[in-house]
Every structure is written in structure tokens, then in C-alpha cells.
Fold this protein.
Amino acid sequence: MATRAPEMASTVPVLAPERPVTWPKRTRARLSNGLEVVLAEAHSIPKFHGELFFRSGEALVSDRSVGLAEMTSTVLRTGTANRNSRRIEEDLRRLGADLGTSAGQDTSAISFAGLSEFAEPLLELVNELSRDASFPPPEFERERRQKLEEVKMERTSPGFLAGERLRKVLFGSHPYARVSPTEQQVAAYRREDLEQVYRKIYTPENALLLMVGDFDPQTMLNLAEKTFGNWTGQKPAAKEAPALPAFHGRRVYLVHNPGSVQTQILLGCHAITRKHPDWIRLGLTNSLYGGAFNSRLVMNIREDKGYTYSPRSGVSPLRQHGYFSVSAAVRNEVVAASLTEIFYELDKLRSLPVPPAELADAQNYLTGMFSMGLATQEGLLSQFATVALNELPADYLETYRDKVRALTSEDLLAAARKYFDSANLQIVVVGDRAQIEQQARLFGDTEVYNAQGERLD
Amino acid sequence: MTQLQIPIHSSTLANGLRVVIVPDTTAPVVTVGVYYKIGFRLEPQGRSGFAHLFEHMMFQGSENAPKMQHIKLINSSGGVLNGSTMYDVTNYYEAVPSNALERVLWLEADRMRALKVDEENLTNQRDVVKEEVRVNVLNQPYGGFPWLDMPPVAFRNWANAHNFYGDFADLDAASLADVQKFFRTYYLPNNAVLLMLGDVNPQDGQVLAEKYFGPISAGAAPPFADPTEPPQTEERRGYVREKFGTLPAMAIGYVLPPRRTPDWYAMVLLDQALHGGRAGRIHRELVLEKQIAVEADGGVDDVFGYNGPSQMTTRILHKPEYTAEQTLAAFDEVLREVQQKGISDEELNQLKVKWRSDYYSTLEGGRGGYMPRYGLMHLLACFSLFDNDPQLVNTVLQSFLVVQREQIQAVANKYLRPENRAIVFRAPVSKDAKEAA
């Protein structure tokens, strides 16, 4: 072996005593118009990060079409009553700022970051975008054409095809089932649709303004009041959503992607939302299963068998529902072998209590990772957003680590039995049909689709 | 603007290992990195992809921490770890709660001192790397575009021009003996820098560095192949088939002036003028105004992270109704505008403010939110290994802020010439051809 020096301490150094983890104080306030504000100081760099969230997204407007909330967010940065698209982009650069607009199923957001010295003009621009967007017709038309190319393009990505199919299967007629529009839907978008979505979603009563960075909270709060205070608008009415499909047994959905030299596997079942009392125990169970490098799934199908580069599992929380999923891109010859191991590790967690040492390792992992977000403005922002958007208790961050540490092997066994619904997992495989169909059919009745989403058989 | 004053404690151990410590008690976490001055550019000929495969092997066990232990010990200490292979360096890094600092140093020292891997580990990681190549390149639309497509078109020296992820035949040919030789040649304390950033007292960090890394013997200065390129006299073009994607694509790369020369600083700001997001001239003209392209982005990647020939590369996906030549003509027009008219003082000021702001974010920023100060670590490592001056982190910003608009126009004319560029066209294969394939 390649050795350079004979002596070296051969035992692992023990961990030093833990240093205290202190989350920065949050300043919470409500502006005179009802806009909720959360602020925290973080002086790591002379900048600040912010996000203006609106608590509605695609799911609220899904009756009209698919993807309208996202299209609205895309076009809203292209013009206001006072500034055209080019002016907006150059003003951002002048302020050393970045700005992004986005929409998901449950939220729409304008995120921004910039130099603290230019906080006032940056907030003014965010204010303009959130209330005075003008949706210029030529900009809308360009973005609509861009979107047409994007929806054609995304159908060539195995990851997209797998995710889209799993969401369709798990969510049936619920809006969460539709992750992306068809070409026909995009072609039918009208500018007026976007304006209506904008008026409905982008209101102060529906919003949450979060800012973290190098500023004095009181000064920043005054600035927020001055900038956003006279904006008015109500929270949109909530919408009834259909029930989810129930599953009896496993089923396979093969998406035929001709020429694939690898197979994208994605399995899933319904799980829970972020607010659910079982969230933390399911999170720990997941981290042990496939949520960390050191997890059982990664050790098995990557480090032992070499089937795949990046296997992982996760719990995806949406506001009304959550789902558990397992993914791996594997070589075509080992699709069945990989699925067998994926189920083996799930069933093992459902059958046997986790040994104490492994439990302690996983608890350390989750609690340690939780502290990483403390070091950056973006990390803090994302943790505060999770708490605020999910209406978690005010001391959630402060008590999280103790809650993780209090969990027992019995808790994990119960969580695995309840949420790792092995017998009813829905199985998506994206790959070249000729190479993988026989293997896939070993795991259940099989439906075959093409990349356009049409059923082949 | 005030001068940056990041407290950088740097030293060199007797065995030549450079040590850089930056204390910051914002959070009780510490980021540790070990950078070795060898990347895929100078990996052995006939062993394309070897530097990266070797990086995987560094997670497969060392004398006192067998396979799985590296990963297990870091995760179970509450931290994360990874490594990456770049052109001229390979890094290994961990972010952990600061009470695990000593354990991390022990692990990094153990694998710098005595890598211990076997045939089974090599077979396993060769399989993993092949799946990595499939998931990132062979089974993805525009996989490897343009970072793998461009080098063989742009460069003539094997060092710069080969397949960095590796031909599968070369990966298959890699032996355990190759692994050991590469380790003995390049993975030396005198060819590396150790970095600690975050919740660490500089004196304590220094003592621990000495304790764990001090006993490792130095080796002979590693041999490095010469990456110099022969002079280029005309535009170079290459063609690649796109198997999955729907849009024609092209990448245009211009060789950059030598690192940290006045031309280079001006060129980096010009890059911002051209590629700086939606305000950048290329995106603005091709995507927003003329609407020829669906995507037009790129630029100088990892500005400080190269120690050899590199490019500013524009990546364009355009609408099928425009030909490649029409698209290229529109691109050329954007460049011609800067070459003929230069940029205004106002634009230059915007570029400088944005560059300063981005630089701060680089210093703070992590990787995916879970690797605090990765950016600062990376700059300190590159400035240590390439420039022997980690303090550049505090001063380099100034060199960009003094660039004059005349310099921008001058470098546009000097470097953005056809005989200094290479173009890769990546056109989708027809549907019929795909079905028959």
C-alpha cells in the first residue's frame, strides 16, 4: 500500500463538546396594509437577501390552465408602469442585485439579493413588480414562444419524464398531478389570463416578506412600511381540491424513451405535509434510508453494487399533501436488481428496529446538517421561510434538534411501517422499452407511455 | 468602498503542506478542504478520465479508515463531504459542526498519508463513474455541452483537448497500479493546501494541522506536462450530434488572456458585459430583442480556478427557423458593437457594482446551501496553489474596479477575433434517424 509515514494515530478522534447553536432573533411585524414581515440580521457580507412570497400558486388557478402562475411570474419582471424590460434589468445591475420570479403549486415568489447600500431602490423595484406589473404584449408573446420551446425540450429529459409521470399517478385529478403544460395549453395562454392571475395572487394580505442580511431591523422595517405600506389587496378565497387516488398493490409505469443508455427509476407513495406531527420522525427515517450519503440505500446500490451514481430518497411536502419518493438512474441491465434492493431496504426498515448506534449516527447527521444553514444569509432565509410558510411553531428552529434526539428506534419502525408503503408503491421507469420492459414487468402490472404522455399499452 | 479584511492565517509545514485558516464564529460549523494541485488537464495520456476516477478512489478507504468509514464518520458527526475534479486541481471538502474538526483532519491526513484500496473498490467505483457519465452526459439532452465538446475542437495539446470524463475504454484500462502511482506522484503534502474556515481558533487549527499532517513525508516535486498550446491561426469548427434535444445548439469559445494580467481583468469585466444575465448583451440581443435564441448564456466559468489555457464560452440554443449561420451572424454583431463603440462609463460602473456584489456572494456562498464558505475556500486554495498568495482574496477585487472603458474596447478587439475562437455546432439528429438507432 502507498504509505508515507509509519506512525499515525490509528483511532478516530472523539468529538469535542458541542458548541451552542443560536439562531438569530427574528423581528416579526405586520405592516398597516396587512403584509406580514419577518426580518433577521446576518452580517456575514454587506448584502441582504429577501423573498416576497405569495401564498398561492398553480393549484389555485389550475381551473384556467396549467402553468399559468409560472407564466405570470415570468412575464411580471418584463415591465411595469414606469420601467420597461431593459430598464429593469439594467437597474438591477446598477444596484448589484439579483432578482428571480417563480411559482410552484402553493406559492409564487419574487426573490432578491443585493448590496445593503442599495436596499431602498431595490425594495422599490420589488414593490413595483408586485403591484404595477404591466405585462407588455410583446414581452408576453416572446415568453409564450419561449415556453413552447421549453415544454418540447423538457420531454427529452429522463428526470422530467419520471417526475411528471409519478405526480400524475399519485395525484390523479388533484392539481398537484400536473407539473407542466402541454404545447396546446401554452399556445392557448392569453395575456388577460396572466393579468387576472396577478390580481388574484399578488396581494399584500396574501404575502409574506422575508429579509435576512446586513441591516438594522428597525430601519428595514420602516423602509418596508414606507415602500409597501399603501399597497392594498385581499387574500384570495381558498379552493376545494379533489381527493387523491388510493392504491391497491404496486403498479409499473414505463415511459419509453428510445435510445436511452440508462434507466431512470422513480418510486413513490403518499406521505405527509410539513405541518404534520410525524414530519421529524419521517425525516429521520428517510435520512437513514436514502437521504444521506451514509444511508442504507446509497451504501447498497452505489458503494456495494455500483448500479448507480446518485440514488436518493426524499419526502416532498406540498401544502395539502406530501409524498415519499426514491430515485436512481441505473444501467439498463440492473433495473430489476436495483428495484429488488430498493424494496429490500424499505422492507428491512419496516421489519427490524434500527440498531442504536445507527440511530445515533442518523440523529447526529440530521441535527448537524440543520446548523449549516446558519452560516449564510440564504441558508437562514430558507429556514425562516419554511417556518413561516408552513405556520410551524415560533420555536421550531430552536427545538428541532432536541426533537430529533428524542426519537427512538420504535418511533422509526412505526414511521417506516406507516409511510414507506412498500406493498403499494407506484413504480416509474424511464428508458428504452426493448431493454427494460421484461425486468419492469416483474414488479407489477405495467402501463407503457411515450415521452408525450400517450399510453402505448 | 472599504478594503476587504478577511483574517487569513497562512503558513507552510516542514513537509511543504500549505495551511490556510480563516476564523469566523458566525455559526458553530467549520469547513475543511484539501486541494491537490492536479486536475484532469494533466492526467496521464492513455488514461483519460483518470483524475476523476481517482477522486472517487479517495473515498474508498485509507489505512485507519477502511471503505465506508470516511463517509460514515463525517455524516455521523453531523456533516457532509464531497470532492470534485477540475482542470488544474482536485478538492476534498467537509462541512461539519465545529466539534468534529479534529476528526475531519485525522481523516484527511490518513488518506493523504496512506490510501488503501483494492481491486474490488476500483471495479465498484469504475461502475459508479460510468453511471455518473451516463446520467450527466450520455443519457441527457445536451449532456456535456459544451464542456466536453469544446476542448477537442479548440485545443491541440492533448492536455487541454482530451475527454476529461474519460473514454470508457480508458476507464476500463485503469489499474490498481495506476491508482497507486498517481497517488504517490501527485497526492503529496508539498503539492497540496489544507484549509479550515469558520468556527476554528487559528492557533488551535495550526496545532492540529501540525499534529495530523506534520508526520506525512514530502515527496519529489511532481512532474507536470506542459499545457502550452501552439499558436492558433484560424477559426476552428467542430460538429457533434445531439441525440435527445429538440433545438440546434452552438458554443463559441474565445481563448482568454493570461491569468491576472491587465488584459485578463478587463476581459473578465467584458465577459460580464456580454454574459451578465438578462442585462448581458448576448442574452439581451439574441433572446430578448431579436428572439433568435431560446437560451444564450455562458461566459468565463470559475474565473480564478484555472492554471492553463481556458476560454470564455457562449452557449446558445436557437430556434430551428434560424440557421446556425444566421445565429452566428447575430452573435458576431453583438461583439462588433462593443469592438466598434466600446461601452459607456455608465455600463462599466454597473458592471463593477455587480461584480463587487457577486464577489461578496462568492465569498459567503456554499454549494447547494450546505457547504458554507465553499467559495472563499476555493479562492484561497487557487490563490495558494497557483499564485502562492492567499491574501489575494482581500486585494483582487481592486484590480477589477480600476479597469477603464478604453481597456474593455481594446480587449474586445484584441481577443474576440475569429482566429482566437472555436465553434462547436450540436444539431439534433432527425426523428427518423433516432427511431432507427
